[in-house]
Design brief:
The chain has nine helices and eight strands. By secondary structure, the chain is α/β, with parallel strands linked by helices. The protein has one domain: Alpha/Beta hydrolase fold, catalytic domain (Rossmann fold, 3-Layer(aba) Sandwich), CATH 3.40.50. Helix 4 packs across helix 6. The termini are far apart.
Length: 320
């Protein structure tokens, strides 16, 4: 591991001490799945946002897919725009309720709905199971938009880390199946490319939170094969997609010290070349998942940029 600590934004150093890096393998995977490891803030003003549990029936013999819906309180009967959220965790960890305080804050700030999907995890369920769970949840949401109180033409997908990878893959799958349309894709430090595991590493990235060793383990579990092979589906690793045209507008944000910074920049560049409206942010001194820091200026800036972009997608200006 290269000592890149001197490059980390000084206000984030406390986060590294609070959230120590875990090298993930079969032995330490249970520790990664411990929700108490993620330093999320407490829930504020719970009366302002309503929380509802829902279930999308499984398709083709797969199990049912749990969903959690958050809506601003007191707005029953309104058809709201909606963020369809996919949680992170390296494809091998995470859960729908893990970011509840942040989801409640986002719903309260934006005045939208947010539905988060509880997909199955690898290695117990490798690709394509987790992605199909995400598609099943989205299909159910589209079919029941009226009763849930959301606007079906204003649903976009949002994810961070592996959730960002699944969000990008879901955008590809939705485009190619042609049953629905997504309004946008919001990808926070997305895990897009298994070939990062075998390419020439950037010695200044991946020292904190999510390391090259953890990345290789996560991809191996998700793919059910060694990363970097020749037969990997683009729906598993979206960076492998040959054609990115026709995808919804994209927001991609990452830190300069994040292991995924180069694959994220490359994906944003390819989206732009394919004619997809894309906003890219790279935050100097940012490590993986740095935006969870409650007070650091760099974290607050990323949250502002993210929220502003989401507001523009959820509530587009009326056309003349």
């Amino acid at each position: 591991m290269t000592n890149s600590r001197h490059l980390v934004d000084p206000e984030l150093l406390g986060l590294l001490d609070l959230w120590p890096t875990l090298i993930v393998d079969a032995t330490t995977l249970p520790l990664l799945r411990d929700p108490s490891r993620i330093p999320v803030p407490p829930i504020a003003n719970p009366e302002r946002v309503e929380r509802t549990m829902m279930v999308a029936p499984g398709r083709d013999g797969a199990p049912d897919v749990p969903l959690i819906c958050y809506r601003p309180a007191g707005r029953a009967g309104e058809a709201l725009p909606c963020i369809y959220h996919i949680h992170g965790g390296g494809y091998i960890a995470g859960a729908t309720g893990g970011l509840e305080p942040l989801h409640r804050e986002l719903v309260d700030t934006l005045g939208c709905a947010l539905v988060t999907v509880d997909y199955r995890l690898a290695p117990e369920t490798p690709f394509p199971g987790p992605l199909e769970d995400c598609y099943t949840g989205l299909a159910w949401l589209m079919a029941h938009a009226g009763e849930v109180g959301i606007h079906p033409s204003r649903i976009g997908v949002k994810g961070e880390s592996a959730g960002g990878g699944l969000a990008a893959a879901l955008a590809l799958l939705v485009r190619d199946r042609g049953e629905y349309a997504l309004a946008f894709q919001h990808l926070a430090y997305p895990m897009l490319d298994d070939r990062t595991c075998v390419g020439e590493p950037n010695p200044l990235t991946g020292d904190y939170i999510w390391t090259p060793a953890s990345n290789a383990f996560g991809w191996r579990c998700y793919l059910g094969a060694e990363p970097g092979g020749t037969e990997i589906s683009p729906y598993a690793a979206p960076a492998r997609a040959a054609d990115l045209a026709g995808l919804p507008p994209a927001f991609i944000a990452t830190g300069s010290l994040d292991l995924f910074v180069e694959e994220d920049i490359a994906y944003a560049t390819r989206l732009l070349r394919a004619g997809v409206a894309t906003e890219l942010h790279v935050y100097p001194g940012g490590v993986h998942a740095f935006d969870i820091h409650p007070t650091a200026r760099i974290a607050r800036q990323m949250r502002r940029d993210s929220t502003d972009w989401l507001r523009r997608q959820l509530f587009p200006m009326e056309q003349p």
